[in-house]
Design goal:
With 161 residues, the chain is mainly alpha-helical. The chain has one domain. The chain is built from 7 helices and no strands. It is globular, with a radius of gyration of 19 Å.
Length: 161
């Protein structure tokens, strides 16, 4: 099994762990589950990266959760929020596997020019995404907010548009 396959396996196991945390961990506040889900990929990634013998596993395991966070940032910026659990589970699996694949590819030995190009493109995309987030939010017509269950007091709909 090559390094990228092992990295995908680690990402899939972390996605399952995140899913199980989301299903079975019910704290009093939403912040606690966010913190747990943000921190669990680090120790689990270190353990699994060492166990499957990823090349430069310490670097991969430290950087992959950050790549997963960047993928979540793009998902939140460009895709509409949905309560559909199937979509959320598949998106979580895709984000975890993509984060580990990208990070393992970046840290494998070889030519550094394509890797530097990919990292530069990701950095530029993050900067561009953060600069257009407000425009993306405003692109949805205000009149469709009641359709999504957002309560708008009478008379405020006309003032908001």
């Amino acid at each position: 099994m090559n390094a990228l396959s092992r990295a995908a396996l680690v990402g899939a196991v972390i996605a399952v762990a995140e899913l199980l945390i989301g299903i079975y961990f019910h704290p009093e506040d939403d912040f606690a589950i966010t913190v747990v889900q943000a921190l669990v990929p680090f120790p689990l990634g270190f353990l699994l990266g060492w166990a499957v013998k990823l090349p430069r596993w310490a670097f991969v395991s430290a950087a992959a959760p950050l790549a997963m966070g960047a993928c979540l940032f793009f998902e939140a910026a460009f895709l509409p929020y949905t309560e559909d659990m199937t979509y959320r589970v598949l998106a979580g699996f895709a984000i975890a596997v993509a984060g580990y694949l990208l990070t393992a590819w970046l840290f494998t030995p070889g030519n550094w020019v394509p890797r530097a190009s990919v990292v530069s493109a990701i950095f530029i995309a993050i900067v561009a995404t953060s600069s257009v987030q407000e425009a993306i939010r405003r692109s949805e017509p205000v009149g469709s907010l009641p359709h999504y269950g957002v309560p708008i007091p009478p008379g405020q709909l006309a003032a908001a548009s």
